[in-house]
């Protein structure tokens, strides 16, 4: 049925992001890695998350085709690389869009544990 009995939500994806502290760390660009990741990404969720963090500039609305030549897409691949690997929420929270339940992020780690009374 799609319902998680412990959680109580049906459609809790994607979680909304809010950040109070974001760090940007330089990570070596690997076009092949990003190209291989394209088919595994939930593109709409990535664009939404990037928008919520203010780093969506340059991301296309539709996912780039993984079959295109990397040279033609390098700017877009670099932007995806930046969003996926270089932008880190160190403090903030994730919020379920269905239930409104909030999960804190501290030191870059989200705490997704349920309380004992849930």
Describe the model.
The protein is α+β, with helices and mostly antiparallel strands and 118 residues long. Helix content is 31%, strand content 21%. It contains three helices and four strands, in the order βαααβββ. It has helices spanning 31-38, 43-53, 70-86; strands at 16-24, 87-95, 102-106, 109-110. A four-stranded antiparallel β-sheet has the order 1-2-3-4. Strand 3 and strand 4 form a beta hairpin. Helix 1 (31-38) crosses helix 3 (70-86). The longest helix has 17 residues, at 70-86. Mean pLDDT is 84; it is low at 1-8.
What are the main properties of this structure?
single chain; 21% strand; 118 residues; disordered N terminus; alpha+beta
Largest sheet: 4 strands, antiparallel
Major sheet strand order: 1-2-3-4
Fraction of residues in H or I helices: 25-40%
The rough form would be described as: globular
Please identify the oligomeric state. single chain
> If you compute it from the alpha carbons, what radius of gyration comes out, rounded to the nearest whole angstrom?
16 Å
Helices, by number, come to 3
- List low-pLDDT spans: 1-8
Number of strands: 4
């Amino acid at each position: 049925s799609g319902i998680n009995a412990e959680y109580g939500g049906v459609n809790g994806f994607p979680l909304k992001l809010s950040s109070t502290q974001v760090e940007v760390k330089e990570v070596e660009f690997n076009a092949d890695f990003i190209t291989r990741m394209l088919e595994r990404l939930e593109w709409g969720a990535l664009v939404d998350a990037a928008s919520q963090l203010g780093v969506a500039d340059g991301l296309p609305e539709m996912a780039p085709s993984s079959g295109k030549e990397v040279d033609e897409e390098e700017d877009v691949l670099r932007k995806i690389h930046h969003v996926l690997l270089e932008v880190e929420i160190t403090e903030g929270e994730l919020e379920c869009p269905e239930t409104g339940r909030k999960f804190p992020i501290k030191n870059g780690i989200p705490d997704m544990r349920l309380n004992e009374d849930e």
